Every structure is written in structure tokens, then in C-alpha cells.
Amino acid sequence: MSRMAIRSPAVKRLMKEAKELNKPTAHFFTQPLEENLFEWHFTVKGPSDTAFEGGRYHGRIVFPPEYPMKPPSIIMLTENGRFSVNNKLCLSISNFHPESWEPSWSIRTVLMAIIAYMPMHGEGAIGSLDCTSSERAKLAVRSSTYKCRDCKKTNLELLPEVEEVPGEIQELLEEASDVVKRLVIKPEAPVAKKQRQEPPQDAISLGEELNDPAQELRQQIFQQKSKQYLWTIYLLLFFIGLLLSRRLYLIDYK
Ligand SMILES: [Zn+2]
Q: What is the C-alpha to C-alpha distance for residues 25 and 160, in angstroms, rounded to an integer?
């Protein structure tokens, strides 16, 4: 690597992120290719309680030389029934939140945004979205054995079962909610053709059919949290019951 390349902010930043992300988490694993710091491969786990549960999906992230000032592109490689494969997916600016990409967003937040996006959106909008839940579930079963030619490992080898740190997913989803709120992941706009009859389905912003992806994400987080609250209430009720029964017992047989 030349001295100039080492000095570039993109190289510095990518090397820093590579160091931080050098171990698989319960939800993803990603590292740069040995020969190219500007191309990373990742495996993400399908979110639980969705058709993607148990699935592991491999993909590439390609960084522009201006990273982190400009966002990376994503190419999914494992069939998933949600994102088309072998196409560049862009992190585009949402119609609803036309702010730009933030340099503070990281590879981790991008990966969490991909996971958060998987179960979102109704069927039928983008080519691969036409898959039914059962088709997605079938692909999820197959996905762990997908082997990347560059990584020479299967998804399961790249992302083995790692015990989750309690609350980890909520923390990560909250961290990613800003990205999800402001960006849409969509296929790269096709090169302008002379005659364009109607906008290709792929070019329609997901934001339009979606309303607000951040809203859905917040709902997901809320649902997970309310499950925890419910358990706390059950426990409290149990102890109150226990105390009451003791009291009754004392009164009856004193
Ligand atoms: Zn790979």
C-alpha cells in the first residue's frame, strides 16, 4: 500500500472498523477481503419471528474512495426472497427524510439496517419481494450452506451460533434506527435509457409503499420491550399472590 493510500481517511476508517468487527456477533460477521480493503463480505442472520428466522445471508459491501463521506453499496449473494441477488443495492436517501448519509454511520449500522429491512415492506413491490413467506422460509433453511467463492466458507462457518448478549439486538436496532429512518435500500437506478415507458418497479422508492420504515422498526423494538414488561408484571403478580395466601393462612389458623 502506498503512503498516500495509508493516509487516506477512508483507509484509516475502514481499518478501524475492521478491527472493531473482527469477531462474529450473534447477528452478523463481516470483514474486508484480504486483497481489497474497499470490499467487505458479510453474513447476517435473519431476524427471529419472521420468515427469515434461522437464515444466514451472505453479501458484499463495496465502499467508494470517499467513504465515510459517501455511503457504500450492498450486493446480496445468498437467495433470500427479500432483496434481489447479484445486483447493487444502494443506500439511497429516502423521499421522506431527504437528509444525506452521515459519516458517523458505520458498517455495523448498515448491517443492522439490512436485518431490520428484511421483514419490512409488503409483498410484490420489487422483483424478489414477490416471494411468499413459505418460499422465504425454504430459502432460509437452505441459506446456511451457501458457500462464498471468495470467502471459501459456508454461511454457517462464517457465522456460527453465538450466544446473544441480553438486550444486544435492541441496542443494535436502536442504533440503526436512524439509518433506517433516513435511508432506503433499493436496487441501483438503471442507466437512463432513451425511451422510458414507465418507471421500472425497482426504481420506485421503497419509502413510498412503506410510509415510514422507522415506524416499523420502532414497533419491533416496542414489541420486544413489552414482552419484557409482561414478564415483570407476571412475576409481581406471583409474589403478591404468594404474600396474600400467606396472610390468609395466618388469619385462618392463628
Ligand atoms: Zn464472501
A: 9
